[in-house]
Amino acid sequence: MRLRKIQHIRPCEISIAPLIDVVFLLIIFFMVVSQFTRVKLEAVSLPPASQGELPEEMSSRRVILNVHQDGRIINEGIEHDLLSLEQLLKMEKAEHGGGRLTILIRSDRKTSWKTVREIMQVCAGEGLSRVKVAVTEAEGQN
Fold first, then answer.
1. 98-117: b or e for each residue (b if 16 or more CB lie within 10 Å)?
2. Sign, CA torsion 39/43/45/50
3. 40, 65 in Cβ contact below 8 A?
4. Cα(105)–Cα(117) distance, integer angstroms
5. Which residues share a beta bridge with 132?
6. CA end-to-end span of the chain
7. Domains and CATH numbers, the chain
């Protein structure tokens, strides 16, 4: 007795419904992530500088402090005074370690230097030495 192989020919179809779902989820993810980035970098007019270094790629934790013209200190959309800033830095230092923590001060060009100096003193009081001040390239510089 001879057995025949039964061949089922199935048409090749690709269902794109799961692909569309994945694309929409990716779009939502990137929209949310870009909103978080905008909250960290508020609109402040940075002071010009003739010298400086380009920002490096950070593998450690970075705390961004936006200092407005009127002296308000804002981190991730939350306003801080010097006491609450000290508590924030203590918490970040405990969570990420002081040696790996970088503080970036984005101060408005019309902000009093006294405010920036006080922020630096709070950082020094917490033992944080990786403090950077954001600036823009001065006009006429290459």
1. eeebbbbbbbbeebeeebbe
2. positive
3. no
4. 11
5. 104
6. 89
7. 58-137 (3.30.420.270)
Total-model pTM: 0.64
The DSSP-derived string for 67-119 is: E-TT--EEETTEEE-HHHHHHHHHHHHHHH-GGG-EEEEEE-TTS-HHHHHHH
Residue linked to tokens 């939502």: 28
- From the CB of residue 88, how many other CB atoms can be counted at a distance below 10 Å? 19
Q: Tell me the backbone φ, ψ of residue 24, rounded to 5 degrees.
A: -65, -40
Residue written as token pair 């920036």? 116
Q: Estimate the crossing angle of helix 82-96 against helix 113-125, to 10 degrees.
A: 40
> Which amino acid is it at 120?
M
What Cα–Cα distance (Å) separates residue 34 from each residue in 40, 42, 85, 128? 10, 13, 25, 28
Q: For residue range 69-118, what is the model confidence (pLDDT) as tens digits? A: 888 888 888 888 989 999 998 988 888 776 778 888 888 888 888 988 99
| Distance between CA atoms of residues 48 and 107, nearest Å | 11
Cβ-contact 122, 89 below 8 angstroms: yes
Res. 25 pLDDT band, cuts 50 70 90: very high
